[in-house]
Amino acid sequence: MGLRRSVLLLPPLLALALGGCTTESGAEPTRPVVDVVSGAAVLEATTETVLLPLDGYGPDAGGRQLIQRAADLLIEDCVARKGFEIDLVDVLDYPPSTQYDLNFFGVWTRERALRTGLGIPYDALSEAHLAEDATVPSDAYEAILACPDGDDEDAASLEESPSDSVLERGRTDSWGWASTDPVWEEALTAYRSCMEALGYTFDDSHTPYSPAIADAVDSEAGIRAALDQVDCLSTTGASQTFVDVVAAYQVVFIVENEAALVAEKKESEERVGLARRVIGEHGEG
């Protein structure tokens, strides 16, 4: 449900778009020296996902959905104690959402381009959440925002705090470093040259990745532009280069923070285990 989705659950790319990476003192972290290896990251067009080195230290898509479902069940319980009844979308009934995956550098799969053009992508789960929002009684909003209860130990244990997470810091920092790396910038130049050769222009004050068009982003022109974007990202190799640069920074981050990452992985596995228990106690799973 969009209303109660915590900002702590925002994907790292969206978090990056909302704010840059800084250290606890507020200073920019020191950029490490990296070697970019071609193919170090895996772009999977059929699932619209990317596999990066840091992904092995957190829950996978299935684990994240288990945690989300358990948290939703506890939200329903909390709201019921306040005198309201809501029925949240069962995320386990849907493939994992890819709404924000790699949207940082634009549309990169033909299926997504055909679906929404240059617009914000959607999928079955995100659509279900939009429909879910429309069914919530207006007088239940305050109760939802007040949940979970502060004394709900299971709910507290399911939550994670990216502000204290080495894993999330690594993800945010690696994307931040990568997007200003000379290899990334060279790939961006090649991609933009490809688009400009097709007659497109860019509004860098909005985004340096997607072309500026006069029509609606999901119009026929928007779809055509998105398909051209996919082709240019592919033919120039920019999309693969972008994620390979990210992977290079993540490899260095892992070397420097492996002990803390291993500890967080253990905590994530415990959260998934707790989620399974909560779901089971509610007669699901």
Automatic annotation (TrEMBL):
Protein origin, superkingdom: Bacteria
Secretion signal, residue range per the UniProt entry: 1-27
Assigned keywords, A-Z: Signal
Keyword Signal recorded: yes
Tagged with keyword Signal: yes
Protein name (database record): Uncharacterized protein
